[in-house]
Design a protein that fits this description.
This protein starts with a helix and ends in a 7-residue tail after the last helix. It is α+β, with helices and mostly antiparallel strands. It is built from 19 helices and 21 strands. The longest helix has about 30 residues, at about 1-35.
């Protein structure tokens, strides 16, 4: 009997345990898994807060984690009107310090807690702090575009959600919460990484704990919170080097009204600088849209252009690799009287070697070589050099379908294509990767622009590995081409690209534009010689020539870049 009673007790215990397991699990979920979130929500209900970020959002960083967006802290007035003893008196006194209209401040107070949109000088900050008004503070607020951003076309800009349909699209594609008044990426990395950059909570805020009567709670008061990381937002870490980017933009502002510059690390294929002109400021897009030319918001680094004589690098590589010519093969240039195409040097170069024709950018010689190669070979080598591949690792720019190398084989296109005109199109990034192939003994290295995505606590969410390299031409052919590129700068049209104390090599290009007197001027090259560190491409729209307009820009950028002290630590 006793045994049966004990058995019933044990069964009852286990039955009750089974019944309580869901309750225990729920309590564990509430206390452990969701406890912090519930605590945060309870805190929200018991307090008033002001976010100390103008746009809560992940940042876009250079390779050394320095902000490219110009993100920085700016002193701002933070107000809690419900805590003020006499809002009218505060508004009158504050208006005197700021030089603003009292009524305007009263209207801003009526909107509730927030920040006031006034820049502050040191004296104004001192006077406001000394006044010590309840509900008025001066605190640093993180501004996304506070300082002058770099690489504006790469970063892009933000804008409002355009329609309820767009809001639905964003919400469907994300686990994050969007509202119709949110700012979202409209171009560049801001657009391509919108879902990752979008914040889920502010990382900087000030919170006031008060009762219904507006009395600050004892022991709580006003607290500044700046240490909590947002688990939702991510930061985009690019391959850009802030210092080199700054050099590029400074030089372009002096010499390039419209065009592009791309600088690449020779060894990795990482883009360390890229800039486009005309430029814009991401914080002032709305006003610039009304007055700026359409070119202002075009990323010229990824746009297609006829490369002109820069394309002769590919024709020369194909001809040398296929054994059609050697550096010493001779040709005859009759200048303006040449049959296939006129030479820029109207008297003609006369008898000229292939290497000299490359250095002097002699069109008649390359027209002849192009015919000997045939369209098929030129297309094949152009593809190997990446001129049909607009992919940049980490930078998903939509493909421009106008780039079609097969058009080289269309009737009457071969001669013009052999000198980089006609249907031949390439982006400055593609030209840079092409030139880098010559430096790396014929190995093509895919260009990369984004290295990783990371959280605020440093956790790496996603890495963008370098692409797979492949062989395009033999090391021997690449060596011959490097000698010819050196000859361009020493004795040919690229003399103004010579980088003093380091040496440089490269190729000029002057692409004619239909209906315009001036040309798209190119120079693509590398420095130092013989141990290159950087390869750079300069495009100047509406230039005089590659030698006059682009080569000097390349030289100045390289001279400043190569003198930068190496980073330590």
């Amino acid at each position: 009997m006793e045994y049966r009673r004990q058995k019933r007790m044990v069964l009852t215990f286990y039955l009750l345990l089974i019944l309580f397991i869901p309750i225990i699990a729920r309590l564990a979920d509430v206390q452990l898994a969701r406890g912090p979130e519930y605590a945060r929500r309870a805190l929200e209900q018991r307090s008033m807060k002001v976010v100390l970020e103008d746009i809560p959002r992940g940042d876009i960083l250079d390779r050394n984690l320095k902000s490219l967006t110009g993100s920085g802290l700016q002193q701002k007035i933070v107000i809690f009107p419900s805590l003020m003893d006499d809002p009218q008196r505060v508004a009158e006194s504050l208006a005197g310090i700021l030089g603003e209209d009292t009524q305007k401040l009263i209207e801003q107070f009526a909107r509730g807690s927030g920040t006031l949109p006034y820049p502050l000088g040191m004296e104004q900050i001192r006077l406001i702090k000394e006044a010590n008004w309840r509900g008025v503070l001066v605190l640093p607020v993180r501004q996304r575009y506070y300082n002058q951003p770099l690489a504006s076309h790469l970063i892009g800009h933000l804008g409002s959600i355009s329609s309820p349909g767009k809001l639905e699209e964003l919400s469907a594609a994300s686990t994050k919460c969007y509202h119709l008044n949110d700012l979202i990426g409209q171009m560049g990395l801001e657009k391509y990484y919108e879902q990752q950059l979008k914040a889920t909570r502010p990382e900087r805020l000030v919170r006031a704990f008060a009762d219904a009567a507006g009395t600050l709670l004892a022991g709580m008061g006003i607290k500044l919170e700046t240490s909590a990381a947002d688990p939702g937002r991510q930061h985009v870490v690019t391959t850009i080097d802030y210092r080199i980017q700054r050099v590029v933009e400074r030089v372009m502002d002096k010499y390039v009204r419209c065009g592009a510059v791309v600088v690449m690390d020779v060894h990795t294929g990482d883009i360390v600088a890229m800039a486009s002109r005309p430029n814009f400021h991401p914080a002032r897009v709305s006003s610039q849209l009304e007055t700026a030319s359409p070119e202002t918001f075009v990323d010229h680094c990824t746009a297609l252009y006829q490369p002109g004589s820069i394309f002769k690098v590919i024709v020369a590589a194909a001809a040398l690799e296929e054994g059609i010519v050697t550096e010493d093969t001779t040709f005859t240039c009759r200048g303006k009287n040449s049959k296939l195409v006129k030479c820029w040097y109207h008297p003609g170069h006369g008898t000229i070697t292939f290497a000299e024709a490359f250095a002097q950018s002699c069109n008649p010689v390359f027209a002849q070589v192009g015919l000997q190669l045939g369209a098929g070979k030129i297309i094949d080598y152009a593809r190997k050099f990446g001129l049909d591949n607009q992919t940049v690792i980490g930078y998903p720019v939509p493909e421009d379908k106008r780039q079609d190398l097969n058009l080289i084989a269309a009737p009457y296109n071969l001669v013009n294509s052999s000198i980089g005109q006609g249907p031949v199109l390439a982006t400055p990034i593609q030209i840079t990767a092409m030139m880098n192939t010559i430096i790396n003994d014929g190995m093509y290295i895919p260009p990369r622009l984004v290295r990783e995505l990371r959280k605020s606590d440093g956790t790496i969410v996603q890495r963008f590995a370098p692409g797979d390299s492949y062989k395009v031409i033999s090391g021997a052919t690449a060596s011959q081409l490097r000698e010819m590129l050196l000859l361009v700068v020493q004795k040919g049209g690229g003399r103004k690209a010579l980088v003093q104390n380091y040496g440089s090599a490269g190729k000029t290009g002057s692409a004619e534009v239909e209906g315009q007197e001036r040309v798209n001027a190119w120079f693509s090259g590398y420095a130092p010689v013989p141990n290159p560190r950087y390869v750079a491409t300069v495009l100047v729209e509406q230039g005089i020539s590659g030698s006059e307009s682009a080569a000097p820009v390349f030289r100045e950028i390289m001279e400043e870049t190569l003198t930068l002290a190496p980073l330590t630590g």
